[in-house]
Specification:
Blueprint (H helix, E strand, L loop, with lengths): L1 H12 L7 H27 L3
Length: 50
């Protein structure tokens, strides 16, 4: 759910200029998506056997 919301917000705001708050939100969403994917990659091996 969190990833879906981040992806949707990024897709809606990705073309906004960083000068505006919307553009800053898009960049933060993109960064958070990347961080979330990295965390999931690290955690997946440890929870997969469950």
């Amino acid at each position: 759910l969190s990833r879906k919301a981040l992806m949707e917000s990024y897709q809606l705001l990705q073309y906004e200029s960083e000068v505006f708050p919307e553009g800053k939100i898009a960049r933060m969403a993109q960064k958070n998506i990347t961080e979330m994917e990295n965390i999931l990659k690290l955690l997946t091996p440890s929870i997969a056997p469950l």
